[in-house]
Structure formats: structure tokens, C-alpha cells
Amino acid sequence: MPPLPGAGAHPEAEFPEYAGTYRLEACLGSGGMGVVHLARSASGLQLAVKVVHRPYAADPEFRARFRQEVAAARRVSGAFTAPVVDADPEAVRPWMATLYVPGPTLAEQVKRNGPLAPAELRRLTAGLAEALRDIHRAGVIHRDLKPSNVLLSDTGPKVIDFGISRPYDSDLRTETGKLIGSPPYMAPEQFQRPREVGPAADVFALGAVLVHAATGRGPFDSDSPYIVAYQVVHDEADLSGVPEDLAELVGRCLAKDPAARPTPDEVMAELRPPSYEAAAFIPAQRRPAAVTVVPVAEREGAEDATHVRAAAPPARRGRLVLAAALLLLVAGAGAGGFALWGGGDGDGGSVEAPERKAAKEAVFSPWSIALRTSGSATPVCTSAGAGAALYCAVDGSGTARIDPANGRVLWSDRNTALRDASAPIVSGGVVLSAGPDGKLRAYDPVKGAPVRETGVSASPGSAFPAGSALLVVADGGTVTALDGTSGVARWKGPLTGHVRPDFGLYDEASGLAYASEHSPDGVSTLVTAVDAATGRAVWQRRLDGMLTPVSTAGAGELVLTSMNRDAELDGLVRYAPDAREATRIGLPFRLDEPQVVMAGDAAYLLGRGGSLLAVDTGVGGEGGKAELWRLETGVGRGSAPVLGEGGRLYFSAADGRLLAVDTVRGALVGQTRARLSGGKLTYASVLPAPVAAGRMVVGTAPDGSVFAVDGREPGGWCGGGPGAGGRGSGGPGSGGRAPWRRVPLGVPRCPPGA
């Protein structure tokens, strides 16, 4: 049967004519994941039928989510929702039919006619509280209550669209930890710890919906969803315009702490009896418009939600906006004095007496210095180890050496206006950093004077440091090892089997550098272990999957990440070259663009959305059995993590915060303040990893500052006491596994500031 042409600006040019046995008569609205049609049953009953867009119908994960939506909608009674009449989640184009409810959405009503009258508002409050009680009694959390998901019918408000709801007993994780929803109506915990969202989040959304109904705006109002997200987490709700007799109740619904919010039953109890004596609100009836037409084998040889009645906002408002909104969620960055760029004549080469060095370490004080005082740029730094000098480069300025004890600039090459600065390289007794021509320049580490030009691009990845040598790969796959001190080639030649090898790991203990290259079809990876001193290929294997070497472990074993085509990490692989055995370590969920660091057998994986997972790579098998602990850090985007003394892991956030995690307990134990630029929050386009050198941890921020804090006291980074943090178990050697944990309340939440 030919399809019925659609009308309007919908994602698809044509719509199906039938969903199951239901003839689709008109389009009621379109969202990011599907289209809602008006239809009729055999008896003439009007239905609203959601049909999934064709591209999503081929996605097994989305089908699972759609099945969950159907199950959630069926679990509630229908007295306060649009009851499910029929559904087929397994159809070629999955669909669900609910009873059609005539009437405008609350969003439409307020937009057309302004805020509700006090009596109407009380009745709406009672009706929505009753609806949430019914939904929660069915074991479902809605998670997306907002004005466009509330229908005003002549029998009271109806809550619709369970597209991102979650039954209490569901094992399905929403988009592997990504946030889905609408920022003005999301509770703080939905941003900070989305896997722990409970019924209280719906009560928070109720409060926000009531403010909108009473005033025409939200309690956290801004043209920018970024600012709204920040306000939801940190600011007090704006209740001006809410009737006095409801303001206190609405304010409690909007409490930051979920435990401080009333339950739906408590909301209803506070409204009796006036809400039931209020005149019923009977909105004008809306009529639909007519249709206008497994183990890794070694190879031998080398959401967003769709609104059931009203047309949804553009799809871009969903996942992309929320991913960006996460960058503002939890404010925090460094302590200490703030100094302007200072010059120096280079006394950093002197050798301190052991007694003096020990005394300085014992009285370490935090410090902060601005390497750039205008514009927005994030410095990138490196250090040769505990007590060694710190070398930093920053866009718009140049390279500098900093005294790690006090932050004083020992020398600087400020005449080099860098672009896309990368971390300086300390190799062979010289410091290599970008020069004015975009090539690496060698500096005297003590005096800061340029000693030679290298002719090698300073772009990230162009030169790979491997001990005292730099490995440079030319087009065609030829590898040249340059002596870090002299720049003379130690060896040069092609790497057999490779077209364009990518060096990403150097093991100092063995002197091996590891190169990898994915096959064009993405089904295998060629891995080669190269002796960095001689260029000899020690071993070479082709392994199944898109793999990247990240660390060594055990007796010469290699640990690699396994990625799918969507750049999601779906497992780890531990390869023993002598035995030619590869073991796959399964993960409990996939991670977006993760950064990985290892300590012994323990791997710590930080996903793009702030999900931190600890895995024991010494334990084989699928199904997440190797999991040690997991933690939702609340960071929208994090740098590569680094490990420091005391079993702590450090990483930076895009707003300049530095965060510390106890890897034994799996607990967030400290964070610094967000760094301000010109009195405004700024966000890094690139996110360099912090530097951990002894007890000192150095962070950088988009305001151009470099700051150092005491790694032994992360709980006091912004005024909290030592050891602040949550309780937990699990971690290397602990013998236990902690459940998915929220950000501990004991960790100081620093207000923004410099």
C-alpha cells in the first residue's frame, strides 16, 4: 500500500499510512525520535499513535528504550495519563497507540492566555501531585515533567510522554549515563548523578512547572541553557509572582536536597480542601488539523523525548544542548595568591641542599600565576618529576619555566605568539616547545635561551617522546628517531606492515614504544612493539577490533582499549605477547570517548560525561565482573586523568576546576574553584591534563592561569577540611565493589572565584 504523503516540516518527507491495523489520519506533532499521528480504532475511538523514525528503528539500544517507554506507560493507571491502547515495539517501525486526549498543553495555554488564575493554579497543583503519586505507585519515575508534557483536559491535567521515564526495577541505563531532559525542569541530581535519580526529581519538576504556570517563566530563567543548568544546581529559585499561599510549598518542591522535598501525598495534603473547592478549569478543546498531504582472537601475520501531543522542540535542543549544559553544572578552581606574569633571570638550575628541600616540601603553600592576562586560553604544562621545574606554554604568549615551590616565573619566551599550544617536551637535557614558525624549538632548560630549531611540527602527535628520543612519523610510514639533545637522527626506516603507524605509548622500564594502526574496515588493529633505542621491531601482531595501547601491566603484557565505530569504549583487552593470548575484559556499560590511566592491574576510565569507572584488568570474563567501583563525578567534560601519590587520581574540568578522587574508596575527595576570566565563567576548548609531581598537583584554567595545590589535602582545596568526601568501598586491593555513587555531600562545592 503506498504511503500517505506528509505535510509540514517534519524529519521525514513521507509517513506510513498504517501502524498495525490503525489508519493514520493526521500528524499531531513531530519530535527527535518519532512522529505522533491521529488515528481511529475499529470502533471509532480516537487514538494518538507514536511511530518511531526509520533510522532509530534499526538501533537495538533505542528499541530497548522504546520498549521501556511502552512498559512504563502501561504500568500507570491512565486516570492521570493517556492510557496505552496498543503497541508493537518489535515492528519494522515501532509504534505505540494511546487514547487521544483533546486539549492544549500547559505550555500552549500559558503562551496563548498568560499565567493561570490562582484557583486554576491550585487545581493544577493538586492534579499533578495526584498524577505523580499514581505514577510513582506504579514504580515509574517520569524524569521529564514539563509544561509541554502536561495536557489540560476537561477531567483534569494529564501527564504524557514517558519516553525517558524509568521503572524502578529496570536494568536499562539511559544512554550509558548521558543526560536527557529539559534543563529548566531538571532537578540538580539529574545533572550531577543521573543514575541515582528518584521520585523526588519529579517533585522538583512539579515545582518548576507550577512557577511557569503562575508566572509564564521558569524559576531559573535565562536565554542560555548553559546558565539555566548552572542556576538549577547553585542558585535559589525565583518565586516572584507565585501566589503567596503556594510560594512556600513550591519553594520546598524546588529544594536542592531531594530529601527536603515533599512527597506528592504531602503536596496534596497541604492543598486540602481549597484546591477541591476551586472551580474546574475547562480549557478550549483543541481539534486536530486535517492532513494536507567476545574473546579477542589474534590474527596470524604481522532522546530525546518525543512529545505525545504537542510538536516537539527541534532535536538539537536535546542531547547537544544538555551535553554543553553539563559544562556549567558544579562550580569549583584553585586556591592561593594571584600573581601577574613575572620575569626572571633563571636561577632554576641551582641545586638545593636536601635539608632545605625537605623543609620547603613540609611547608608547601598553594600558589597561582597568570601566564596570560587577557583573552581566554588554557596553558599546557609538563614536569620532569617531583621537585623538578615546571614548563608551560599558552596560546597568544609563549613558553615559560616556573619554580614549582612558589610559582615564580624563572624565564619566559614571551615573544612567541603561540597558536594551538601543546605541552613542552623535556628530552635529552633540553626543553622542546613551539617556536614562532609552528616548529619545535629547543630551549636551554636553565637559561631559557633557544639553542636550535628542529624542523619538526609542534602540532600535537607530530613528535612522540620515547625516553631521550623523539619518534617522528612521515607520510608513507617512515619513522625517524631524533636525539632529544642534538636533534641528530639515531635511526630511520619504515615500520614493516604499517602505512601510517601511530605511537601512543612508551614503557620506560622496557624501552619499548608501541605503535598501532587500524585496518581500513575497522575490524582489526596491527600492533608493533619497537625498541626506541634501535628501531628494532620486538614483536608484531594483528588483533581483532579497533584497539589502542594505553598501558603495560604484568610481565610485558599490554593493555589496550577496544572501541566501536561510535567512538565508545566497549571493553579492554589484555595481551600477553609471549603466550600470544588476548583476554577481553568486559565493561558494565559503554563509555563515550574515554580517557584511561592505569596503576598496576587497575584501569581508571573517565568518560566524556564525567562517568568514572575502575576496572581490574587482571580479571577476565564478560558482564562487568572486573568492575571495582564507579563514580558519577558531575563533570560535563574532563581532561585525561593522572595518578598521584597516596592513590589519588586527578583530572581537570572545562571550567578550570581540578578534581581529586580516592582510587581506593572510589570517592570524590576534593575540588578547586572555577576560574574566572574578566568576571565571567570561561570554558576551555582544549582540556590539558593536570601535572602530579610529588605532593604538588598543578592545574591550568581557561583564564590563562596555572595553579598548584597540595595533593595531600584535597579536602581543603576550597575551604573544606582534610579528607572531606563520601564513604565507599571498592578499589584496588579492597576486595569490595561499590555501587554507582553520587558526588559525596562532604566534598566542598566551591563558589566561582579566582
From TrEMBL:
Biased composition (Gly residues): 717-736
Binding site residues for ATP: 50
One Gene Ontology molecular-function label: kinase activity
UniProt entry keywords in alphabetical sequence: ATP-binding, Kinase, Nucleotide-binding, Transferase
Domain of life: Bacteria
Domain Protein kinase: 22-282
Region annotation (Disordered) ranges: 717-754
Gene3D superfamilies: Phosphorylase Kinase, domain 1, Transferase(Phosphotransferase) domain 1, YVTN repeat-like/Quinoprotein amine dehydrogenase
Cited Pfam families: Pkinase, PQQ_2
Cited PANTHER family: MITOGEN-ACTIVATED PROTEIN KINASE KINASE KINASE 20-RELATED, SERINE_THREONINE-PROTEIN KINASE YBDM-RELATED
Name assigned to this protein: Serine/threonine-protein kinase
